[in-house]
Amino acid sequence: MKTEIFDEMNDLIRQGKEIFDAIEGIIDLTDEALEVSTASVTKKVCTLQNDVKARDMEIEKLKKENYELRESLQKCNHEREQMKTKAGDLESARAGQMAKVKNLEDWRIKARKILTGEVSELLKHSLTT
Description:
The chain has helices at residues 2-115, 119-128. The protein is an all-alpha fold. The longest helix is centred in the middle third of the chain and has 114 residues, at 2-115.
């Protein structure tokens, strides 16, 4: 009877050891899966951090380009306004010159009439104006 009890205890110990070994195997597999998963997550986090840094750099570059373009646009707008002012001044000067030319042409016509002896026409013209 002692041997039977001893044999049954040995069987229970063997079964317990088998269960323990199975649990240990599952734990090992879980540890390996966890390590792989952790490595994968770490790699993804690293990749995302690098992407964020790259995008931050791109944003800064675009901000700088935008600032430079804005400055250039303001300079061009200022130059355009100066050119408009200068064009207006030139147009006024041209109008003044045209008035002088007309006065000189009128004077020339009157002078020719005087020189050609058309005094009566000149007198008539000066009385009407």
